[in-house]
């Protein structure tokens, strides 16, 4: 169990668990909480016993956005000097799979946290949206960029300009969600998926994530060059030798992440 103030952090069966834990304010993400989340992710990323990470929200929501009380008095200069959004960039540096398990509200910064994850399991009651426009601001931690890349300009602007929340089924239709599940089995399903990843070759997972992330921004040609390099690189691993030897010997492989 962790000694964090705004999240709970623990490890179980090769899965790193992070639960947002400011339930009285629907897990509104204040600045220390951002630091705690990113530090926990980086620690799991370095922990050889962890193969995948699952993030969920405690209480009745995933997260209802950045903490409005904390932000209300900010000025451009205070924001520039603090530059805390730079911390969000560090999530992109996490090499291991990050799975979001989302129920209830995932708004503003909460939605941005979801969009920073690799795979999203959502309960049927989940609601996603960017209500920043109603506060006289706009998303600041990647929301406009990631939503537009996911659903295109025309649809992204509709959600960003209205600030409306979309139901989980709509989010799924837009390709934002990996799997839609009943609320009562959300964590079970997300953890079962994570458990499958724990069985896979860790270096393969890592380089697949790296290559897929590059595919988002690269041309097909550039993406294929990156893919090829990572494919070749895996042949330096002990797990490639083990995986192919196990296939030939008709037995399950024993991957070690080396
Ligand atoms: N910041 C601070 N406190 C918040 C919060 C937030 N983002 N969201 C909810 N809370 C607090 C509420 O103030 C309330 O506190 P009190 O009990 O002390 O009054 C508590 O959480 C419960 O919320 P509600 O009573 O409002 O619950 P509800 O079920 O009636 O409504 C809600 C839920 C629709 C999510 C509503 O709370 C809401 O609109 N929240 C704000 C959502 C929002 O605007 N998010 C964007 C923030 S800006 C951002 O995220 C910028 C960025 O890009 C990083």
From TrEMBL:
The keyword Lyase applies. Pfam families: ECH_1. One of its GO terms (molecular function) is hydro-lyase activity. GO terms for biological process: fatty acid beta-oxidation. Keywords: Lyase. It comes from the Bacteria. Belongs to the enoyl-CoA hydratase/isomerase family. This is Short chain enoyl-CoA hydratase.
């Amino acid at each position: 169990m962790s000694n964090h103030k705004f999240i709970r952090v623990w490890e179980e069966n090769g899965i790193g668990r992070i639960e947002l834990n400011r339930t009285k304010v629907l897990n509104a993400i204040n600045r220390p909480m951002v630091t705690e989340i990113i530090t926990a992710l980086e620690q799991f990323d370095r922990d050889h016993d962890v193969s995948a990470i699952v993030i969920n929200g405690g209480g009745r929501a995933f997260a209802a956005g950045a903490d409005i009380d904390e932000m209300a008095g900010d000025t451009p200069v205070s924001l520039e000097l603090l530059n805390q959004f730079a911390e969000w960039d560090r999530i992109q540096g996490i090499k291991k799979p990050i799975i979001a398990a989302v129920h209830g509200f995932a708004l503003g910064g909460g939605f941005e946290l979801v969009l920073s994850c690799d795979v999203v399991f959502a309960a049927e009651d989940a609601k996603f949206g960017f209500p920043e426009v109603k506060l006289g601001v706009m998303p600041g931690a990647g929301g406009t960029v990631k939503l537009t890349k996911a659903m295109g300009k025309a649809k992204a602007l509709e959600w960003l300009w209205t600030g409306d929340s979309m139901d989980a089924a709509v989010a799924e239709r837009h390709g934002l969600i990996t799997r839609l599940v009943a609320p009562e089995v959300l964590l079970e399903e997300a953890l079962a998926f994570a458990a499958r990843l724990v069985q896979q070759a860790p270096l393969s997972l890592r380089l697949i994530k790296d290559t897929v992330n590059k595919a988002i921004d690269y041309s097909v040609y550039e993406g294929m060059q990156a893919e090829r390099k990572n494919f070749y690189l895996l042949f330096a691993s002990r797990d490639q030798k083990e995986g192919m030897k196990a296939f030939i010997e008709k037995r399950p492989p024993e991957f070690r992440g080396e």
